[in-house]
Request: fold
Amino acid sequence: MGKYIHLVSFQINSPINHTVLSWAHPDDNRLKALGDMSLWIDMARTLERGLFDAIFFADTPGVFDRYEDRMDDAIRYGVCWPTMDPVTLLGAIAGATTQLGLAATVSTGPHHPYSVVRQLSTLDYMSGGRVGWNIVTGHLRGEHRAYGLTELPHDERYDRAEEYMEICYALWNSVGEGAVIADKASGVFADPSKVAKIAHQGKYFNCNTVAPALPSPQGRPVLFQAGSSGRGQAFAMKHADVVFAIQPNIPGMKKFMTDFNATAASLGRQPAPGVTFGIQPVIAGTEEEARKKLNDIVERIPLEGAIARLSGTMGVDFSGMELDQPLAEMQTQGSQGLMKAFSNIVGEKPLTLRDVAIRWGLAVGMPQFVGSPEQVADQIETIWRETGCHGFNVTPNIMPVSVDDFVNEVVPILQKRGVYPTEYLGKTLREKLELA
Ligand SMILES: Cc1cc2nc3c(=O)[nH]c(=O)nc-3n(C[C@H](O)[C@H](O)[C@H](O)COP(=O)(O)O)c2cc1C
Reply:
């Protein structure tokens, strides 16, 4: 927990962020934004005005195809399809902002570590150290099918990612102190003796080279991680600066933090990585208006689209299951952490498959903070204080109205209470997040 609440804006470069069919809402501009970077840039500037630490892109580079073993629901309803690349978009946002952090999810599945380091470190160097990487190991079957890859079992994906990270660190550490001379008179760019050569021959990867980019002022991108199974957390404790978690409610968040801190202590990770919880504010002038707004959003969610997404994430085809039965924990090679959180819900009666699907359609299980700006600020501050979390990944529902409302109405309240910065805490993303 830092001195301040940290906020990251949670986005996807697709027709929706996390709310199925949000693109069809009369006030939503995402259909336009898909083909117009200037709308993303306007939103990024609003986030910067609101001192968000970063814009953070989730990414699943494949189609949700588990439900009934077909892609049609995802395609029909635009459920994260098309699935456009986030890093390309971050390049444009980097050029149009000076402070906002730039975080992208990039899966270790399809790309060689050299490609990912090259792509992200180029952006990190050129943006003055504003980049974050959400390391995911590829839980989506559709991602493997898209790239023609064999799906590895859950834990082996993390084993492979361990080797992946070894190469990443070697590349990030390759350029030593004082290596770059850049002397126009002598024509010497760098001292080869200060640039470490990597000779990696491993089980999954080979890599023989030097760093593809120079280190930024923060050295390497800030590392985010979101796996919450036992194996996922062990990986996070080793690598993550910030862990991003989804818990369905406040008791779940409290339990997550208690367990997380115990795991960190038992593995000797001190201080523990910061934890940000995903949330979806629904803001209006009054609580009643906000509830009505939420109902309107819920009512337009097609159940099939929501279940298609749920099936994809959980790695289970739910088409044969009774909608009104409680969701039982099932074996999966998909997201074990999310399966556990929603089938063993803390502090509520067990959720049926229908309940979970609706929550997935709304915001992949992230809880809604519904009310007036003051009420939303209250919930954010209370959870921050009671759980000791680092902050929140805030997913908007209607674009860009939800971002505008939050920045214009909730941020000033948090600032007045002294729990949110009134200026950026540093130049690099690491500094902004109080990780330095
Ligand atoms: C908050 C959150 C965000 C995630 N974002 C992505 C994402 O953008 N892309 C992706 O492929 N997986 C994403 N995942 C999946 C996880 O990174 C992880 O691969 C999956 O949950 C399986 O790991 P686990 O069983 O250890 O939880 C996310 C998970 C959570 C909890």
About this structure: The CA atoms of residues 7 and 392 lie 5 Å apart.
